[in-house]
Amino acid sequence: MPCPKCVNEYTRIHLEQWTHGGNCNGRLLIDSNAIVHCEKCGKTAPLSKMRITCDSHKHINASASRTEFASAVSIGCIGVIDNKIHWFKSILDHI
User: Fold this and answer.
1) 31 and 88 in contact (C-beta within 8 Å)?
2) pLDDT value for 81
């Protein structure tokens, strides 16, 4: 999924692998209820409450709006094959 703030600003958009900040660096996954899970430490949080830092570091510890997250998720779900529409709609319903 790309940085929601970069998507909103129409800057250079590329898909990023999201990782948990601090000392964890675990890979982050988003479930269909828009809950983010860290594969390494197991912490969870609603996507809408996440603070983000993009790969370019243009946005550091930034908050994104629901609309920005929805736009980024729509770009990020490219390539998801099984239940793409159901998964996407479910995330939008929960953001």
Assistant:
1) no
2) 57
Dump pLDDT digits (tens) for 31-66: 889 999 999 999 999 998 989 898 888 889 999 998
DSSP code of 58?
A: S
The total of other beta-carbon atoms located within 10 Å of residue 7's CB is 23
CA angle 59, 60, 61 (to 5 degrees): 120
Closest CA relative to residue 17, chosen from 8, 6, 26: 26
For 1-22, how does the pLDDT look when each residue is reduced to its tens digit (9 = 90+)?
888 898 888 867 778 888 998 8
**80 vs 52: CA distance, rounded Å:** 23
Tokens for 46?
């609603």
The reported pTM is 0.76
